[in-house]
Amino acid sequence: MYCIVCSFFLTACSKNDEILDCNCDPKSTTEKLKIGNQQFKASLYDYAESPYKFWSIKNEQIDDFYYSLTTDKTKITSIFIFSNNVSENMLKIENIIGYVTLEKNTDKNNILKYSINVFKRESEQGFVKINKDVLDTYYLSFNDISNVNNLYFETSKNIVYIKNPKRQFKGKLIKSSFQNEINKRLEQKGLFGKSSTEVCASPCPSHEGFCYEGMDPQYEYLAECSDMCLKDKVDEEHDGKDSTRPVSSVVLSPASYSFRDDYLYQHPGGDLYVGIYYQISEDFNYTNLDYTFAVRTVDLLSSIMPKIVDLTQNPFSSNVLYTSTEAEEVIEYLYDMKYYVNSNETKDNLDLLIDKIIEFEGATNNYITNHLEINP
Asked: Each residue of 55-96: pLDDT tens digit?
């Protein structure tokens, strides 16, 4: 079911459409950046539409640099530095207006997370921690870092990201106290929903969607985006038929993210569906993509979205989620999706999803929640 909710993210941006915004891959130049007395090799992401330059540095000796800023001897995973002045690829320590540290940690269920602290320069006291409690996150969102920049550092002109690659991990998209704190502060300032939540923040190119660091050894950055291309065409088609039901309102609905974060990641076996989705997204054959399938996806999403909301909000209720008749359309869609993927492994996983759809016909929310496990 999760793959159905998220499948439009696969079809929203056709790789055949020659629109630059369809390219989600960040582009950088290699530069040398001197910070204080230390020189680093950096990747510089500098886009005309971005309010700041983003510098990315991999360095296993991050502790040595961190100790030049503080007497704290915590072994941090990475640090974001905020400054308004980088002149001739040199950043003086006194020009750093604040920084954010991330420390690799685990929660009570032994799931990897980052512990985060925010420090701001005070004229007489040096750097002072400004968050009352330690904040936690299970993933690293550059949209969140962009919001930190706007909230705490008045939109600095440069963000420098130094990380120890040996302390990174592949995160899970579970909202935690860090994201909640950022959203609360945005809401207090009347900025919630008006910030970068629907526009990718640097280092990703600026376009509608959501960008976060993939924390994967194979990729430095991973961008999930829903952008122009087919989405605009389908939006236009559906706006003409029903102005209250554009594609973006269906696909980018908070309900789809909540289903992933607040339901699948919270119940045993749910993370397997998320894994299948990412496998499909990597294996999806965009050369076969057509407009009819995109419209069909949106129609199906619209019909099942109320069921997704009910399952998320009432996971243990006696409500029957769907009947065998309602399942037929979903099963047919999954069968047809096999045409758009390449590997037999992905096709086998689509068969596993079909089996679960059949198993859950006429079942209650409570039964489904307690039987999410997929047995190949």
From this structure: 999 999 899 889 888 888 889 999 999 999 999 999 999 999
Q: Find the helix or strand (DSSP H, E) in which 223 lies.
A: strand 222-225
Nearest CA-CA partner of 321 in 250, 249, 245, 263: 263
What's at 313, amino acid-wise? Q
* Domain limits, the chain: 2-19+228-369, 26-224
- Amino acid identity, residue 292? T
Yes or no: say if 274 and 264 are a contact pair by the CB < 8 Å rule.
yes
| pLDDT < 70 stretches in the chain | 1-25, 124-125, 173, 192-200, 206-254, 286-291, 376
With b meaning 16 or more CB within 10 Å and e meaning fewer, what string describes 52-85?
bbbbbbbbeebeebbeebeeeeeebbbbbbbbee
d(CA 247, CA 241): 12
d(CA 250, CA 305): 8
Nearest to 130 by CA among 148, 117, 147: 117
